[in-house]
């Protein structure tokens, strides 16, 4: 791999951007970031690679070689260091997700309750400025507190997170969507929030609710219209 290609790949990884490295058998390398315009003869190849998320060999009239696809690892941002979070975080990590918890309430966000979990006790507005959401992140809001949940929900809608879910009854969610609508979000955007959160499996305790949430996150990851999610 050429030095310039490696530097550009590393820069894309740091920014959590999907990228394709195209290497033809003549030794030439081309880097394409998702969303960038791609000119023929590689446009269809690169677009197909982003859709599938899979590296592949290619052999066309114009060139032959290999496409390497680099997709950011899926992660879950959990808003709220609550009882559900204590079950959800180890389950999600076992399922292969990077997980972080954001909760400014230091009485809840403690190492005793969440050992070995990335945790931030800043307010979400500050936490998400330092480490922004992206479309490879699931946002799970669990505090029931608008002062804590509303900002990250709005950021998730703006960013296009592949999953957005919020704990609460239908009445609670109706009030939530009214607040978000006042900030300019339309009905289509608000309909992407899963609330009540989790698949309907009749969950009745924090562990079962965590299973329902994680199942819904995985379903969103694997059935998303964004086919660039990692396999």
UniProtKB/TrEMBL annotation:
Pfam families: XdhC_C (PF13478). It comes from the Bacteria. InterPro entries: MoCofactor_Util/Proc, XdhC_Rossmann_dom. Residues 77-217 form the XdhC Rossmann domain. This is XdhC family protein.
